[in-house]
Amino acid sequence: MHMATYRETLRVIQPIITPTFRALRVGLEGTASLHEREGLGRTRDPWFYAHAARRKAADELKECGLLVESPRGGRPLHAMSGLLVRFKTVAIRIYRTSLTPSGQVIVPIPGRSRRKQRFWRQEQDPTLDGMEQDNLLLLWRDDAGTLVDPLTLVRPIGGSHRRDSLQLDWRGPLSEHMASLRAADLDGLRPTIEYPRLGDEGAG
């Protein structure tokens, strides 16, 4: 299977960077407005805050034709477990994340869900037309309701319900300004972390 590099991935997804940022901002602005209008406190139910933001972001992504929907109706395919976007040769699960005490972005694990575990292992999802694709994670967080730029883009290659089972190919930033970079500029970018690949030993 072809293993897309960070730079190759940026080239593919560049056209959807702007609409993805816009969708997440619309989601955050919408849920902030809802909480203010209804007098709700975010800290009392942070899960509802995140879910409301995701729900509004899903509508925005659907308007752009990016949201993967259930074949049994017009609902998001994975409504409660993160947004799923399909564009060209990539499938992207979008998750809200947080930071470790040392300030590192936390990459989610698939848990016991077999569907998620297959996604993390880069196996093809039959609900996505059976076409070969690269499976990516796009992680976002906010600071007091404001989307933090950059987001974090991750290519997983394995994982289960144990934190130490997580395996990654690479992870790197996804900034909004990348939407306007030239191809040569994108090619000059490097991931934050790139893990050794099989067969790379001894390459020079």
How would you describe this structure in keywords?
six-stranded mixed beta sheet, 204 residues, two-stranded antiparallel sheet, alpha+beta, single chain, 29% helix
Description of the structure:
The protein has 204 residues and is α+β, with helices and mostly antiparallel strands. It has one domain (6-69, 77-188). The chain contains five helices and eight strands, in the order αααββαβββββαβ. The chain has helices at residues 6-13, 17-38, 46-63, 114-120, 183-187, and strands at residues 83-87, 90-96, 134-140, 142-143, 146-147, 151-158, 167-174, 193-194. It has a six-stranded mixed sheet with strand order 1-2-3-6-7-8. The protein has a two-stranded antiparallel sheet with strand order 4-5. A hairpin with an 8-residue loop joins strand 6 and strand 7. It is globular. The relative contact order is 0.16.
How many domain modules? 1
What letter string, H or E per element, gives the SSE order?
Answer: HHHEEHEEEEEHE
The helix/strand class is alpha+beta
Tell the overall outline: globular
**Side-by-side strand order of the widest sheet:** 1-2-3-6-7-8
Strand content: 15-25%
Rg over CA atoms, rounded to whole Å, is: 17 Å
Termini Cα gap: 22 Å
For the sheet with most strands, the description reads: 6 strands, mixed
Average the pLDDT over all residues and give the rounded result. 87
Helical proportion, percent range: 25-40%
**What is the β-strand count?**
8
Number of helices: 5
Low-confidence stretches: none
